Amino acid sequence: MAEKQSKEMQAEVKENVAAETNELLVKVTRECFGEKDGVKLYSYHIHALIRGQQKDISLVPKDNGAYDLLNIIYGDLDTVDGAIVFSEFKTEDGGVIKSILVEVFVIDDGIKYSYQLKTQRDSDKASLQILVQILKLKQGNK
User: Fold this and answer.
1) Per residue in 7-48, pLDDT tens?
2) Which of 106, 137, 76 has the alpha carbon at shortest distance from 6?
3) 3-state class of 57 per DSSP?
4) CA dihedral sign, ordered 87, 109, 81, 121
5) CA triple 62-95-128, angle to 5 deg
6) DSSP-assigned letter for residue 109
7) Dihedral of CA 111/118/83/22: which sign?
């Protein structure tokens, strides 16, 4: 009973956070593709529908040390929530570098466990940018 209430509370917290921050939420799946030294190896994906076609958008951590943290975040789950995050950095010469990341997270007992993943390839980045447009259109945002 308490576990059900906790999950309902977590779902409400996620909905409130998304509404307040205008975040675009997605589901991020991990899939085991092998094992090395007794440790399972995972790949991370967003399964999207783009123009009626199923498209897997591949995501990777920024560094190899993050795989342990991702195992903690995912726990025994294969799918967790993700928020699409946009950022801009100004370079010394005045240029602007824009990036798009996906922050995977779980909320457990009021604590948000999270880590940001980047797209694996340029084609994944382009697919994610298309998905952003689709999600914004569905939400009525422009």
Assistant:
1) 555 555 545 544 444 689 999 999 999 998 988 999 999 999
2) 106
3) strand
4) positive
5) 45
6) T
7) positive
Residue that has been written with the tokens 């307040």 in this structure: 20
Residue 33 vs residues 24, 94, 96: alpha-carbon distances, Å: 28, 42, 37
Tokens, residue 81: 């929530």
- Report the Cα 115 to chain-centroid distance in Å: 8
Tokens of 135: 């999600």
Residue 39: is it exposed, middle or buried by C-beta count within 10 angstroms (0-12/13-18/19+)? exposed
For the chain, give the number of residues.
142
Cα 115 to Cα 70: distance, rounded to the nearest angstrom: 7
pTM of structure: 0.79
Segment 56-88, tens digit of pLDDT:
999 999 998 899 999 999 999 999 999 999 988
d(CA 136, CA 90): 26
